[in-house]
Design brief:
The protein has 167 residues and is α+β, with helices and mostly antiparallel strands. The chain has a single domain, classed as Peptide deformylase (Peptide Deformylase), CATH 3.90.45.10. It has 3 helices and 7 strands. Strands 1-2-3-6-7 form a 5-stranded antiparallel β-sheet. The protein binds ligand GNR and nickel (II) ion (NI). The site of nickel (II) ion (NI) has 5 residues, from helix 2.
């Protein structure tokens, strides 16, 4: 297993649209294992393949307090969504910045597991936030895209300042 490097904004590769996974082989399983390792090492609750510069529809998540409930979704699609929630989001590709984002409260998702078997889940609350956040990455979107230009500008300037201070 190995940890993978995480792309940071404004890396243009974060805007890449991921392609569906068509081959469910040992290489895919190894990649998912590396994504888990990378997510846990970074103390993240989720990670999209886009963030490690692999442009395939793969995401991992673990919203449990004990960090022992790993979930991997391959080729995820949202079938239904309803309700609204506001949650303070962060992103491993935007170190040190956090902002409230409004998303669906509940989502019904169809995906595949690492063997290609269909997964159908309905999630709500924080896990629903996380899955929507990760699916955005796979579409080349990031959470600051939802903010007003003013708010986005302020946060990105702050991130740049912190980056320079720690360089
Ligand atoms: O670690 C993460 N925390 C988080 C907090 C609130 C909402 C979404 C997230 S996902 C983020 C990891 C990440 O960047 N995934 O793409
Ligand atoms: Ni993110």
């Amino acid at each position: 297993m190995s940890t993978l490097a995480i792309l940071e904004f404004p890396d243009p590769r974060l805007r890449t649209v991921a392609a569906p996974v068509t081959v469910f082989d040992a290489e895919l399983k190894q990649f998912v294992a590396d994504m888990y390792e990378t997510m846990y090492a970074a103390n993240g609750v989720g990670l999209a393949a886009t963030q490690v510069n692999v442009h395939k529809r793969v995401l991992v998540a673990d919203m449990s307090d004990d960090r022992n409930a790993p979930l991997a979704l391959i080729n995820p699609e949202i079938l239904e969504k309803d309700g609204q929630q506001v949650y303070q989001e962060g992103c491993l590709s935007f170190p040190g910045i956090y902002a409230d984002v409004t998303r669906a409260l509940r989502v019904k998702v169809r995906a595949q597991d690492v063997d290609g078997k269909e997964i159908l889940i309905e999630v709500e609350g924080p896990l629903a936030v996380c899955i929507q956040h990760e699916m955005d990455h796979l579409a080349g979107k990031v959470f600051v895209d939802y903010l007003s230009p003013l708010k986005r500008g302020m946060l990105l300037k702050r991130m740049e300042k912190q980056r320079k201070a720690s360089a």
